[in-house]
Amino acid sequence: MRLTRSATLLGLVGTLILSGCGSPASQAGPTGEPLPEPPTASAGLGDSTAAPEPSPSATPSAKPLPAAGNPGGHVAVPAEGRAVDTSRPTRTVGDGTPASCTSAAVVAAVAKGGIITFACGSAPVVITMAATAKVRNAASRTIVLDGGGRVTLSGGGKRRILYMNTCDEQQGWTTSHCNDQDHPVLTVQNLTFAEGNSTGERGETEGGGAIFVRGGRLKVVNSRFVRNRCDSTGPDLGGAAIRVLDQSKDLPVYIVGSTFGGAAGQGGICSNGGALSSIGVSWVVLNSIMSHNSAIGKGANPAPAGWPGGGSGGAIYLDGNRFTLRIAGTIVENNRANEGGGAVFFVSNDRTGTMSIESSVLRGNRSVAFETAGLPGIFFLGARKPTITSSTLKK
Predict the structure, then answer these.
(1) Is the peptide bond preceding residue 89 cis, with omega within 30 degrees of 0?
(2) What number is the average pLDDT over the span 146-157?
(3) DSSP assignment, residue 139?
(4) 229, 270 contact by CB (below 8 A)
(5) How many beta carbons lie within 10 A of that of residue 247, not counting itself?
(6) At 66, is the pLDDT very low, low, confident or very high (cuts 50, 70, 90)?
(7) Pairing between β-strand 294-295 and β-strand 283-286 as defined by DSSP bridges
(8) 45-50, long-range: CB within 8 Å, 24+ apart, which pairs?
(9) Closest Cα partner for 227 from 157, 160, 170?
């Protein structure tokens, strides 16, 4: 997107309004109370120089994690967006005890690929990653991580949690067209990603505090993303939870039954896109919750002299040419953008992109500087006005 703060104040193409949206609501939202802190499993060694981490303190009496997604969302999920059958896993992290569920075990399993499940005991556990788990592009065409609703992968506020990049030579090139290949196909389901941090990542791998993906395909089902972050400034980087560049045949990323933030203090923070961010990538967001996420950059894109850039898309920041966004059965509330699009920033540079909102609620999303008239919390430039059906949009 090539939109500057100064252009905003001039009322670019008549679509912007200075936002007096008021402050976001202070209540926790539909997920209720702030998230409990599950006990911690030992993280193990991420590489040969990492030091051993403390023994786990998981107990069978630990409270289960709240369910992911919007309980009131009942939009039909197509087959390609549904959870993968993991009843016959290729490999399992852990031997049934929390102590066996280590960072090293997760890193090794992801590198080998296949269907990966966890055996960490009956109580919820947190595995604090001592190294980022990276997909090896030639290891397996399919990688599935299924936490069974009891596993949290944590970046410990220090590192990105999961990485897949078909154009990264260090992870192996498998085709001559790395940015448009149909594999690997990565699915994460029934997992929580917490405190991922990609701050300091620059160039093509910037953004994506919890998950970064380029190429292949990505799907997220029944998962939760809390307290993730990426760089606080930058005109076009984003995605405190997830950043995606390129998907095979321009097919969409599916986000199904998942929660991003969910309560005060639990949301993602980044220059742009407190939850999701991409360039030229399509998304389908179904039966999910996005709340209390923030885009904290200043100066929009490109940043004028003296401004660091960013601050758009409190929950979702999408840029590029031809791409689509479908939000259905989803609640997007109490997100904030220092610049434009407190809920969603959508800019199709060649005006071919389209957006639809179905059976959803967008409310309390503050756009501090600008948004599109008649679309509270949204800044939109595309082929035509967003299609809105059976939905509520309000400040």
Answers:
(1) no
(2) 96
(3) T
(4) yes
(5) 24
(6) confident
(7) unpaired
(8) 45/102, 45/103, 45/104, 45/130, 46/103, 46/104, 46/107, 46/129, 46/130, 46/131, 46/132, 47/130, 47/131, 50/103, 50/130, 50/131
(9) 157
| Phi/psi-derived region of residue 190, left when phi > 0, alpha when psi is between -120 and 50, beta in every other case | left
- Residue 96 near residue 125, CB atoms below 8 Å: no
Query: What amino acid is encoded at 240 in this protein?
Result: A
Exposure on the CB side of residue 65, measured as CA atoms within 13 A: 30
Write down the H helix ranges in the chain. 5-9, 103-112
pLDDT digits (tens, 9 = 90+) for 79-137: 999 999 999 999 999 999 999 999 999 999 999 999 999 999 999 999 999 999 999 99
Residue 387 bridge partners (DSSP): 356
Strand partners, 40: 126
Rounded Cα distance, 355 and 72, in Å? 22
Three-state DSSP at 307 gives coil
Contacts of 211 (CB under 8 A, 6+ apart): 160, 161, 162, 163, 188, 193, 196, 218, 241, 242, 243
